[in-house]
Each structure stands twice: as C-alpha cells, then as structure tokens.
Design goal:
The complex is a heterodimer. Chain A is an alpha+beta fold. Chain A has eleven helices and eight strands. Chain B is mainly alpha-helical. Chain B has six helices and no strands. Classes of the chains: A alpha+beta, B mainly alpha.
C-alpha cells in the first residue's frame, strides 16, 4: 500500500513546487548524490611553478649539421660573384706584375696603397685584441647545480627541496591554493614564498601547462581533509635575480636540464613534468 | 523658459545654438575658372599617362647596385668543374640532411603534441574540480604582451663590457610605431 502512495505523492509535490518557484524543481535526491561524492573525493588544489631559464648560448652543431653548414658555405661561394675585396686583391696582383717591368713608374696613390692582404692582417690583429667570453662557465667546471650560469646552451628548470608531509622531495616550488585565489596567483605566491622575491619571473599566461596528482598518507588525509593533492603547473621564464630557497618548508634548490630530472625526482613525477618542458 | 515656478528656469535648446550664417553666393566667373583649371589638370595627367604608361614607384631592393652591374663582367668567379666523387658526396650529404631534418621535425611535432596534450589534461582536471577556476585559467593574459626575450647568442655576454664605438652606416629603415602611454591591447 505504501509504494503506490509514495508514487502519488512525489509528482504532486514537484508540481506544486514548480508552480511556487516558477521553475522546474530539481529532485532532492540528485543534490544529495552530488554532495556525497564531493566529500568522498576531496582533493587539495596545489599550484606549482615551472620556472625556466632559457638557453643563453646556441647549441654546438653536431656532425651532420657541421658538414652541411660547410657544404652550404661552399655552395654560396661557388654561386657568388667576386666581392670588392677580392677585386682589390686581383688589382694588387696585377700591380705587382707591372712593378716588375722596367718602364714602370710608381704614382703617388700606388705608393701609399694598402694591399688586400695587408688589410686582412690588420683586421686579424684587431680581432685578436678582443677575447669573447667562454661558452663554459665556472659553474660548469665545479658542476655547481645551484648556479643559474651552468649549461648555457641548454634549457634549465628550477627544482626545490621542499618538505611535503614529513619528507623532503625535489619538486617544482608548489603551494596549496588559498580561498579566493586563482590558481595562477597561488603559483606566483608559491615562488615568492619559497624562493624569495629576488627572482623575477615572467608568467606564460593564466592556463596551467601540466598536471600531476598524488595521494597523501592516511595520517595526513585526516589532518588535511583531502585524500591527495592535484598539482597544476604554471610556466614562467626567469628574467633575472637570484633564487634563494631557504625557509621552514624548503631547503635548497637546483637548476637542472630536462635530461637530469630523472636522477633527482620521483619517477612518475619526472615523467609528468617532462611532458611540458619543451626543449627544441 | 518655464511657466511654472521660478526655480525651474532653464535655457532651451535653441538658446545654445548660434544664428545660422548666410551662405555666400559664389561668383560665376570664379566657378568657371576653377572648373577649367581642374579639367586642365586632369587632361595633363591623362596625356602623361598615354605618353609614358604607368610609372611605377621604385623599389630599392629590386633596383640593385648600379656599380655592381657595371663591373659584373669582372666579377665572374673562375671555378674548376666538380669531380665525380665530390658531386656524389654532396648528393649523399643532401639526402642525409633531408632525413635528419625530417626526423627532427617529427621529434618537434611530437614534443609539441605532448605539451599540448598535457595542457588539455590539466585544464580538464581543473574544470572537473571547479568551473570558476577553469574560467579564470582560460582568461587571456593581457599583461603578457608585449613580450620580449633576447638570445641565444654564440658566446655569452661579458658582464660589465664597455662596447667601443665602431664605424658603421645604419641604413635600416624603422617601421616602429610607438604606442600611446599606458596602451593596452583590446579584445573584440
């Protein structure tokens, strides 16, 4: 008897509600369902910064690039006409021939004339006075991983030794989002809090470039009220300044190339961050 | 003016206007003269065009250096013909290079695809967590432009290096249009 009654009651209630509210009433049980799912799978939202130092110098050419650039230079020379400098050299040779003959009289202009070869020597001497900076730096010699001046021809990313739970991990500087912040603002704050405000960074837009999630241990789950963290990475380029990663939650930093990441970070973490570190 | 209450005095629209100016009547002889002048100028242009055809604006890049053209015959490079081995090795290198570049291109596309996919996943995850945060994430960053970055260079810059003044003639034409102070790019 109860079942048919309930079937009768429900449509009446919803139609009354809709008439009162002037819109379609949402069945109550659907809301309940959604909220219950929410509580069971609560994740902490975390923003992280992928701070990149772009290559300062060009990459050295490999074998085939070297060979091919030599070939291109050769072809360019073959297709070219003689330059002014080469014409001058030909004139020099011609003049030297004339000087040998007996009826040659030297004009004033020819006395002070500088030959093409002499000019080249002068240019070479001038070039010798300038010493360009070395492509390898002091940091390379010492293998100083904390220096931003290492491996000038590669892209470097910043990792910090951050305390997550009880242990320290090498991760990109990260911080949970606070209420009212956007994810990008949280990322900016993370860098400021963990690496000091000396490091200038230019952020690459508002959208995250990568994602990684991990679960907390049981103890932390109850403490935080979330089963794990969802980390969203935001890209930024280093504009200048120094990273100073000292504080209660962080102990030291490293500038690593994409290939070096595996040595220091968790394997699955490295796999995720390697996806968006574009080294071309 | 108003008719009800002295405080509600106000000037009507018509009071703001200036009296209309009287239109001057043009002298007929001057008008005729002006028309004749216009016609003569047009006729002159037409005659010019018929005589010479359309005169094109000179383009510096196409014109080239006159001096070079005059001495062209002196500037021919005398080359020995290529040996068989040399031309074979060149052809081989070209083929190797093509394969190398193809592979490089494929790697680049792969890397870009992976990075794009990574971002798509991140955005989707963010949307699943919160629609509001997602909407904030897809906003265009207006402070990003103008973006400037230098490098990479062949040798790193020497810190504190004082550049000596060299001799050079800068013939580069500047097409830089300065933006007004505080200008921001607007979106439609």
């Amino acid at each position: 008897m109860a079942a048919p009654l309930r079937r009768l009651v429900v449509p009446v209630r919803s139609s009354v509600l809709s008439r009162i509210l002037g819109r379609r009433a949402v069945p109550c049980h659907r809301w309940l369902h959604v909220s219950r799912q929410c509580c069971a799978e609560q994740w902490q939202l975390v923003s992280a910064v992928c701070l990149e130092r772009f290559p300062v110098t060009t990459q050295p050419k490999n074998k085939i690039e070297e060979d091919f650039s030599k070939l291109m230079a050769k072809l360019e020379l073959e297709y070219s006409h003689l330059s002014d400098h080469e014409l001058r050299h030909l004139e020099d040779l011609h003049l030297a021939e004339r000087r040998k003959s007996e009826e040659y009289e030297e004009s004033d202009a020819e006395v002070v004339r500088q030959t093409a070869v002499e000019a080249e020597d002068a240019w070479d001497a001038e070039l010798q006075t300038f010493q360009p900076a070395s492509r390898t730096t002091e940091a390379d010699a010492k293998n100083d991983l904390t220096s931003v001046d290492r491996k000038l021809d590669k892209k470097l990313v910043l990792l910090v030794n951050q305390k997550l739970g009880d242990k320290n991990y090498w991760v990109m500087p990260q911080r949970p989002r606070k209420e009212g912040e956007s994810m990008r603002q949280a990322a900016e704050e993370a860098l400021r809090e963990l690496c000091g405000d000396k490091a200038e960074a230019a952020y690459m837009g508002n959208a995250p470039c990568g994602f990684y999630k991990y679960k907390f241990p049981k103890k932390v789950q109850d403490e935080v009220g979330a089963i794990g963290a969802k980390v969203f990475f935001f890209k930024a380029q280093l504009r200048g300044g120094q990273v100073n990663a000292t504080g209660p939650d962080v102990d030291g930093h490293m500038w690593l190339t994409k290939d070096e990441l595996n040595e220091y970070t968790d394997r699955s973490y490295a796999e995720h961050i390697r996806r968006f570190i574009v080294e071309l | 003016m108003t008719q009800c209450g002295p405080l509600a005095f106000r000037a009507t629209n018509m009071l703001n206007a200036e009296p209309m100016k009287k239109k001057k009547k043009a002298d007929m002889t001057i008008v005729i003269q002006r028309d004749a002048k216009k016609r003569r100028r047009l006729e002159k242009n037409i005659r010019k065009l018929e005589a010479k055809g359309r005169k094109l604006k000179p383009i510096e890049e196409i014109e080239g250096n006159r001096n070079m053209l005059k001495t062209l015959s002196m500037r021919v490079r005398k080359l020995e013909p290529l040996s068989f081995e040399e031309s074979e090795s060149r052809a081989l290198l070209m083929k190797q290079w093509t394969r190398y570049k193809l592979q490089q291109h494929a790697n680049e596309m792969n890397t870009i695809q992976t990075a794009m996919l990574s971002q798509q996943v991140a955005l989707q995850e963010l949307r699943n967590e919160s629609e509001e945060l997602y909407q904030q994430a897809i906003l265009i960053d207006l402070e990003f432009i103008p973006f400037e970055r230098q490098g990479p260079v062949n040798t790193p810059p020497i810190s504190g290096y004082d550049v000596p003044d060299g001799e050079y003639v800068d013939t580069t034409k500047s097409f830089y249009v300065p933006l007004p102070e505080g200008y921001k790019f607007k979106l439609k």
